[in-house]
């Protein structure tokens, strides 16, 4: 994988510093977390800052570990500027999904880089659909596109059934953001991997249909 690019080191460092501050400063955490009521009052900065706060060290560790593994793949194809566009674009789209699905829940709150990281995961899958992933407790490699489709389908299930204390909508939105932004920035993928683009679009279409039918 080689050395991490400076841009990734800065992002990981910012996540660590802000999260540590949030762990020890309740007012700081409350001021900058994603909160529907705060956003409805015009505190739009929360759309960005919430992506650099985490609930605890485990939450922070796994998000940064995932970013550590996937960022080099995206950087090798996209470069620094486009990587940043995908990362922050996915973060914002993930939070927009959360706001859309919880717009009337004024007390709904969330934190974490999961939306941004999900976008980087999906960008990586689009750039390298042939790569395989190894997950804990599963001793065999999983094709990246299988993981991608399964991840979004599980996120839909989680959104529909409110599974766990997890922001499934932000995860899904971040992945969708990464998917769309990557295709805009790298249109050559339509020629290189049209089948994979179509397969990864299936869960997005399912979500759209379920929303239209009022099933979410």
From TrEMBL:
<comment type="similarity">
    <text>Belongs to the peptidase S54 family.</text>
</comment>
<dbReference type="InterPro" id="IPR050925">
    <property type="entry name" value="Rhomboid_protease_S54"/>
</dbReference>
<feature type="transmembrane region" description="Helical">
    <location>
        <begin position="169"/>
        <end position="189"/>
    </location>
</feature>
<dbReference type="GO" id="GO:0008233">
    <property type="term" value="F:peptidase activity"/>
</dbReference>
<feature type="transmembrane region" description="Helical">
    <location>
        <begin position="83"/>
        <end position="101"/>
    </location>
</feature>
<feature type="transmembrane region" description="Helical">
    <location>
        <begin position="133"/>
        <end position="157"/>
    </location>
</feature>
<dbReference type="Pfam" id="PF01694">
    <property type="entry name" value="Rhomboid"/>
</dbReference>
<keyword id="KW-0812">Transmembrane</keyword>
<feature type="transmembrane region" description="Helical">
    <location>
        <begin position="195"/>
        <end position="213"/>
    </location>
</feature>
<feature type="transmembrane region" description="Helical">
    <location>
        <begin position="45"/>
        <end position="71"/>
    </location>
</feature>
<feature type="domain" description="Peptidase S54 rhomboid">
    <location>
        <begin position="42"/>
        <end position="186"/>
    </location>
</feature>
<dbReference type="InterPro" id="IPR022764">
    <property type="entry name" value="Peptidase_S54_rhomboid_dom"/>
</dbReference>
<dbReference type="InterPro" id="IPR035952">
    <property type="entry name" value="Rhomboid-like_sf"/>
</dbReference>
<keyword id="KW-0472">Membrane</keyword>
<protein>
    <submittedName>
        <fullName>Rhomboid family intramembrane serine protease</fullName>
        <ecNumber>3.4.21.-</ecNumber>
    </submittedName>
</protein>
<keyword id="KW-1133">Transmembrane helix</keyword>
<dbReference type="GO" id="GO:0006508">
    <property type="term" value="P:proteolysis"/>
</dbReference>
<keyword id="KW-0378">Hydrolase</keyword>
<keyword id="KW-0645">Protease</keyword>
<feature type="transmembrane region" description="Helical">
    <location>
        <begin position="108"/>
        <end position="127"/>
    </location>
</feature>
<feature type="transmembrane region" description="Helical">
    <location>
        <begin position="6"/>
        <end position="24"/>
    </location>
</feature>
